[in-house]
Inverse folding.
């Protein structure tokens, strides 16, 4: 009997990182501002910005830190309302609260994307928007940006799950005013922890750099498109020197050394992740009990997991039984709304001021939406195992149907 694949381990760190890590360990030079110039973190920022086609990048301790600094850099007033999708990770509303703003949750449809009618209805009360491309599912960015641009409302993209995703040929994370990415272990590029923000706005990045912990004149070690002598960036830094609080959310040189060699791996991981996802999605859609929502037309995804909806599962007991049956076959399934204290279920975000909003569409989706890890490194036999286990688990609960592959 085939063994269940390990879907939790990340890909090995490239060999190219090891010599640099050894050098850093031998020198003890782990702080990003110790080197006079060209510290690994500074090099990572320039390389990532160039890869994305952005002017500026700031590497920080997490994507959550990047989101927080983005909101602070926008200089929003105390209590400003920030629209976010009701389907996202708890770190997103947390970043809004940390920035002394108020999250306003927007309904999400059964395809995991923002409900545009609810978004348009709530936009007039907002002073900023965070679009979470949750699990790599891109909402209608053309419609979102048209509404926000007309209203003069800045958009921050939470692209933690979307490195390598394209929307109408544009790189996700470069569509809004600021894009934020994650280097946590379950993301496409892995340093255990870490994040980065990108923008073309020199004033915004200067504010974010200083608040990230660039005390005294360490901002001089950050690179713009013209290197460390970028005049636009230097003017912005000089404007904000000593004017902003420091939150000390820096990335270390050791993390940057782990990340930098992986940037070259991004195209391969995107290609393999998309192929794996689409192969398993086609299999799951052959079952009358499982449904993988289609991507929106302009979207080219870079997935490392798969989400699908349970169809015809009328009770929570049936949905839980499905998850148990899949786990018994070796495949762990998370049903977002039925997983105890799930950080992606909006009713568990009790730190948001006020009463929990009534979001029936999002709640119904979360009660039947399933999540399975599907890293790019899996081979065809392992993908068949995952798909077969999920289809068989659904058949266990809903009755025998045609076998997968027939």
């Amino acid at each position: 009997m085939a063994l269940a694949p390990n879907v939790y381990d990340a890909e090995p760190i490239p060999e190219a990182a090891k010599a640099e890590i050894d050098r850093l360990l031998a020198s003890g030079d782990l702080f990003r501002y110790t080197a006079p110039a060209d510290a690994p973190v500074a090099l990572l920022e320039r390389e990532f910005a160039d890869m994305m086609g952005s002017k500026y990048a700031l590497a920080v301790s997490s994507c959550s830190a990047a989101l927080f600094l983005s909101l602070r850099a926008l200089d929003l007033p105390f209590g400003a309302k920030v629209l976010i999708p009701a389907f996202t990770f708890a770190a997103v509303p947390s970043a809004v609260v940390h920035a002394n703003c108020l999250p306003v949750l927007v309904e999400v449809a059964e395809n995991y994307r923002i409900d545009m009618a609810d978004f348009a209805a709530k936009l007039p009360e907002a002073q900023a928007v965070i679009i979470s491309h949750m699990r790599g599912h891109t909402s209608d960015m053309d419609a979102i940006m048209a509404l926000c641009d007309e209203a003069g409302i800045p958009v921050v993209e939470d692209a933690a799950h979307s490195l390598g995703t394209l929307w109408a040929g544009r790189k996700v994370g470069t569509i809004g005013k600021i894009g934020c990415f994650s280097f946590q272990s379950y993301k496409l590029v892995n340093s255990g922890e870490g994040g980065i923000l990108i923008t073309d706005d020199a004033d915004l990045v200067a504010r974010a750099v200083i608040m990230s912990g660039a005390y005294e004149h360490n901002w001089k070690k950050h690179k713009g498109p013209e290197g460390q002598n970028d005049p636009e960036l230097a003017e912005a830094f000089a404007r904000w020197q000593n004017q902003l609080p420091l939150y000390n959310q820096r990335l270390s040189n050791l993390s940057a050394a782990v990340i930098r060699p992986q940037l070259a791996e991004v195209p391969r991981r995107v290609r393999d992740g998309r192929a794996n996802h689409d192969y398993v999605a086609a299999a799951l859609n052959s079952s009358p009990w499982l449904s993988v929502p289609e991507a929106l037309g302009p979207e080219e995804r870079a997935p490392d997991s798969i989400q699908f909806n349970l169809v015809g599962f009328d009770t929570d007991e049936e949905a839980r039984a499905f998850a148990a049956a899949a786990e018994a076959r070796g495949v762990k399934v998370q049903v977002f709304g039925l997983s105890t204290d799930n950080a992606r279920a909006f009713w568990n975000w009790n730190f948001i001021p006020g009463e929990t909003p009534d979001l029936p569409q999002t709640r119904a989706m979360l009660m039947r939406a399933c999540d399975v890890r599907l890293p790019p490194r899996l081979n065809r036999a392992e993908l068949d195992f995952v798909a077969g286990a999920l289809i068989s688990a659904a058949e266990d609960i809903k009755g025998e149907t045609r076998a997968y592959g027939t």
About this structure: Residues 347 and 358 are 9 Å apart (CA to CA). The first strand starts at residue 56 and ends at 60. Residues 16-264 form a domain with the Aspartate Aminotransferase; domain 2 fold (CATH 3.40.640.10). Residues 401-406 have pLDDT under 50 and may be disordered.
